[in-house]
């Protein structure tokens, strides 16, 4: 009985793959209980991956490294700007697309802001109207992103790729409106694959 309990509690299936042993996390459990008249026999499904893992296929089993599910396209550079009709006090931006090609949902988080330049005239800048990244011309400190802040969750691709957007809003106080300034900073991101139901992998 003790051996049976230990076997039921184990949450992995071991398999030989290209000469090595890999542990694959099981998606769900089965339970056998002799008191219920189920007898002493059952079965479990064994999934394998031979060759290159296809992270675009929703039917694929989970790979040994869950991060292999990450497959997201996003812009290397983004933009914000002030508007003429607000006398260059309102900050807006285009909507920058993030595209998930993965067979699993992917959570996108902001982990920190760095390398800010020429931000003096930016009073307030926020991401997706969720949280600020610049306040009074200074970047928000790293402590505000511990833990990281969620930007959005990209659903799995299913039949088509999933898309979400990043944008900026805020306000500025330009000193000399006839002259342009070109502020910039780095926004650091983290991508976290989720299970089929959109929950963190255990």
From TrEMBL:
<keyword id="KW-0732">Signal</keyword>
<protein>
    <recommendedName>
        <fullName>WxL domain-containing protein</fullName>
    </recommendedName>
</protein>
<feature type="signal peptide">
    <location>
        <begin position="1"/>
        <end position="26"/>
    </location>
</feature>
């Amino acid at each position: 009985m003790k051996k049976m309990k230990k076997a039921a509690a184990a949450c992995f299936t071991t398999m030989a793959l290209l000469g090595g042993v890999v542990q694959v996390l099981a998606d769900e459990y089965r339970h056998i209980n002799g008191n219920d008249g189920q007898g002493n026999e059952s079965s479990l499904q064994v999934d394998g991956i031979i060759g290159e893992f296809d992270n675009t296929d929703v039917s694929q089993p989970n790979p040994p490294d869950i991060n292999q599910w990450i497959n997201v396209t996003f812009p290397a550079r983004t933009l914000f700007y002030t508007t003429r009709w607000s006398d260059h006090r309102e900050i807006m931006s285009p909507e920058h697309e993030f595209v998930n090609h993965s067979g699993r949902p992917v959570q996108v988080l902001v982990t920190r802001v760095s390398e800010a330049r020429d931000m003096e005239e930016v009073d307030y800048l926020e991401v997706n109207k969720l949280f600020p990244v610049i306040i009074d011309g200074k970047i928000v400190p790293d402590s505000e992103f511990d833990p990281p802040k969620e930007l959005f969750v990209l659903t799995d691709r299913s039949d088509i790729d999933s898309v979400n957007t990043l944008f900026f809003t805020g306000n500025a106080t330009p000193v000399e409106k006839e002259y342009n300034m070109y502020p910039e900073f780095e926004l650091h991101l983290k991508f976290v694959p989720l299970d089929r139901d959109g929950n963190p992998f255990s």
